[in-house]
Specification:
The structure holds two protein chains of two kinds. By secondary structure, chain A is mainly alpha-helical. Chain A is built from twelve helices and two strands. The longest helix of chain A has about 30 residues. Chain B is mostly helical. In chain B, helix 7 packs antiparallel against helix 8. The longest helix of chain B is centred in the C-terminal third of the chain and has 35 residues. Classes of the chains: A mainly alpha, B mainly alpha.
């Protein structure tokens, strides 16, 4: 065994395992998406893009796609905006910081499905504790059936999405903040820069790569996020809170339109890939310009 | 105690309090409900009139918690072992060698994160069905291990890069082979990083939902998240005190582990992801 082969042998097991589980299903999905498939998964004739056409003719697909964009933008932007001040606070030296970090990180440790099941109970119309808490605070005078209609269920799901995405995002930001050297702030303070100027001129530019990575990874995770919506409303009532992943799951495992479900998978992957490539390009151009 | 710091602490806690309340709210609901008497559950009071510890043994008997716990332990343990064993050499290669295809391999890992289990679920189900492996816990192990590789490699690589090469080079000069050096010199130094990575892989597998929901059929094979979900989904009457007791019992050990280890994540994940 020569030296040159060593790294390839080292990465081989992980590559083979990841490739088998990731690439093989992709091949399955491509063949499902391009064939006429019966509801038991038997492949019949090759039909080219017919599954995509039937999908694009389905109004539920378009509403789910649109809702997915709102869901992703709402959760990701909400998370980034809330996480930045939290990370700045947790980076300060104060009493109880260790405890504060643990409390903020808590949702990361609990299964999303279980958090969502708990929320489903907390949002219950008659017995839910959110209603009673809001009434006790004098914020409303009658119970709301939060999950009974999309106009209240979907914003709540976005809120839950933000709360469970904060830990990961704060973690990335804290990692970034720990890499900012303290003497930069000392120098800025001597120059007479106030707190806001320090943030604007030092912290924010140095955090840019970390904000970028948090934005890209959160977008990928949230776009693909299934448990929150599934465990609270299963996309209901009447499919009014479906996003692409729940729509895909219903097509595949409830309605038995496997070919269409596979087509949704491919469209989702294409959207994610386009987003990532576009974003990496933009971020790189920005870096080159800076 | 320094007065200035005390004032600043009070101010910062006041700023954090809205978000802390929002984050803790569902878990407070979970704990309070878990201890309420069945007659009191549908009454949304904040303090149970009686803290009913008996909910837990009753939940244990009625909800099938014990087999789900055993399944979750088995699946998460085996996943961790598998993911870490294949990720250590890969992370070592990425942190110690410059080779053609190094960048391509990193990108492949990123793509494997983009192709999440849910996007692939139709294809995975077909693949598993063709192999006759539906409703089999080992199927979950293989799938979870594969999807954990990217995370494990990133975490390990960022730690491995911080371990000085001097000791390894000294061992080579002493005539130890590359493999022997790896086992005797490098791995002991990397042990804490490996332990932390392993525990995060464990937590990820412990909490996974969609693949387990799709691949598991019989109740005796359910893992904990599916068990808890099945106590709620598609039922007309839900014993919420047992559901919350089960969710609580399933979450506490992992949350405690996580609380203990979360500071290691800050360093490992942030540095690994940006590089």
């Amino acid at each position: 065994m020569t030296r040159a082969f060593t790294p390839y042998i080292l990465i081989l097991p992980s590559f083979l395992l990841a490739a088998a589980i990731v690439l093989w299903p992709v091949e399955e999905i491509v063949s499902l998406a391009t064939h006429d498939v019966n509801r038991f998964g038997m492949l019949r004739d090759f039909v080219g893009l017919a599954n995509f056409r039937s999908l694009l003719a389905d109004p539920d697909f378009w509403t789910s796609l649109w809702r997915t964009l709102i869901w992703t933008a709402g959760v990701v932007l909400g998370t980034l905006i809330v996480s930045m001040p939290i990370a700045l606070i947790l980076n300060e030296d104060f009493y109880g910081r260790g405890l504060a970090r643990i409390l903020i990180m808590l949702p990361w440790a609990v299964s999303l499905a279980m958090t969502a099941v708990v929320w489903r109970w907390a949002l219950n119309g008659e017995s839910g504790m959110l209603n009673s808490a809001l009434r006790d605070l004098g914020l409303m005078d009658h119970n709301i059936q939060w999950l009974a209609q999309a106009s209240t269920a979907f914003p709540m799901q976005i809120l839950i999405g933000v709360l469970v995405s904060i830990p990961f995002t704060v973690t990335i930001f804290l990692g970034g903040l720990s890499s900012v050297p303290d003497d930069l702030y000392d120098a800025a303070a001597i120059e007479g820069a106030g707190r806001w100027d320090q943030f604007r001129l030092i912290t924010f530019p140095l955090l840019r790569p970390f904000i970028n990575i948090a934005f890209v990874l959160n977008t990928i995770y949230v776009f693909n996020s299934f448990p929150i919506i599934w465990a609270t409303t299963q996309g209901g009532p009447a499919n009014s809170t479906d996003i692409l992943v729940t729509y895909l799951y219903k097509l595949g495992f409830r309605v038995g339109r496997l070919g269409d479900a596979a087509a949704v998978s491919l469209i989702m992957f294409a959207i994610l890939l386009a987003f990532t490539i576009l974003y990496v390009r933009l971020a790189m151009r920005e870096e080159a310009a800076a | 105690m320094n007065r200035r710091k005390l004032l600043r602490s009070l101010l910062l806690w006041a700023l954090l309090s809205p978000i802390v309340v929002a984050i803790l709210f569902p878990y407070a609901v979970m704990i309070i409900t878990a201890f309420k008497a069945p007659t009191e559950v549908h009454n949304p009071t904040w303090w149970p009139s009686e803290w009913r510890w008996r909910n837990f043994p009753e939940m244990w008997q009625t909800s099938g918690f014990a087999p789900a716990l055993a399944n979750s332990l088995y699946v998460s343990g085996m996943t961790t072992l598998g993911a870490v064993i294949v990720s250590i050499p890969a992370a070592y290669a990425l942190s110690r060698f410059r080779f053609l295809g190094r960048g391509a391999f990193s990108q492949f890992l990123l793509v494997s994160q983009m192709l999440s289990p849910i996007v692939l679920v139709i294809g995975l189900f077909r693949l598993v069905a063709n192999l006759g492996m539906i409703d089999n816990l080992s199927t979950l192990v293989v799938i979870y291990a594969a999807f954990n590789i990217a995370f494990c490699v990133w975490m390990l690589q960022s730690y491995f890069s911080t371990i000085s090469r001097d000791l390894e080079e000294a061992a080579w000069l002493e005539g130890a082979g590359r493999f022997r050096t790896l086992v005797v010199v490098f791995l002991p130094l990397a042990a804490p990083a490996i332990a932390v990575t392993a525990i995060f892989a464990f937590i990820g597998a412990w909490n996974e939902f969609v693949i387990a929901l799709t691949m598991l059929r019989r109740e005796e094979n359910y893992t904990l998240p599916i068990r808890v979900f099945s106590l709620v989904a598609g039922r007309y009457t839900v014993d919420w005190q047992y559901v919350m007791a089960a969710a609580f019992a399933a979450s506490v050990p992992v949350a405690a582990l996580f609380a203990w280890l979360q500071r290691y994540l800050v360093r490992g994940l942030a540095l690994g992801a940006v590089k």
